[in-house]
Design a protein that fits this description.
By secondary structure, the protein is mainly α. The protein has one domain. The chain has helices at 6-18, 21-37, 40-67, 83-102, 107-129, 135-147, 152-171, 177-196.
Length: 198
């Protein structure tokens, strides 16, 4: 990867922050559920519940690790730093899915959670035994595919955002080309398997 100018790196950092999985996932849940249910209040409620049960604990763990200097940076740049984050994320997703089942959440949301959990488990295994997977790229690719049946123009915009965040992760040297492509691939496979098993 050729060296990039400071403005390019600044743009890449901004894109990585704005399109961070912790932000993208809840917003995507709310948007897709709103399109599916036609009820913004319900969509925001379900998205808030998922954010509180999954994003909240993961973010708190990351902030604690940063404060204690147990990780190098917020991107968890070293593969080994991601082991615990994946484990906590998967556990929180399983618990949240159980709550969604008990509350009889919309089937679309439960389907999305099954796909996301499958992707997280696959990424965790790849990370453990081989290489990092770009979660930024994977989440954006998964959201793009999930949006496609509901709003193709929005899916096209999300596809462009996926390309932008992929560029950003490469510019910042957080991932290699194979790592971002793995993110795309695992997201696509997870969505496809979840739809096939519906």
């Amino acid at each position: 990867m050729p060296s990039t100018s400071p403005p390019a790196q600044q743009a890449a950092r901004l894109l990585s922050l704005v399109l961070h999985p912790f932000l993208v996932a809840p917003v995507a849940i709310a948007g897709i559920l709103w399109l599916d249910l036609g009820n913004l209040r319900a969509a925001l409620g379900w998205a808030g519940l998922c954010a509180a049960m999954v994003v909240g604990p993961a973010l708190l763990r990351l902030l604690r690790k940063l404060r204690r200097h147990e990780v190098g940076d917020a991107d968890l740049s070293h593969r080994e730093e991601r082991f615990g984050q994946y484990g906590l994320g998967a556990l929180c997703m399983v618990l949240c899915y159980a709550v969604l089942q008990l509350l009889q959440a919309p089937e679309l949301l439960r389907l999305g959670f099954r796909a996301a959990l499958l992707a997280v488990l696959a990424a965790s295994l790849v990370n453990r035994f081989w290489t990092k997977v770009s979660i930024h790229a994977g989440v954006m690719a998964g959201v793009t595919l999930a949006m496609l049946p509901y709003h193709p123009p929005m899916a096209a915009a999300l596809a462009a955002a996926t390309l932008l965040v992929t560029w950003a992760r490469l510019v910042l040297h957080q991932h290699t080309v194979p790592q971002v492509l793995l993110g795309w691939l695992l997201a696509a496979l997870a969505v496809g398997v979840a739809l096939a098993c519906r």
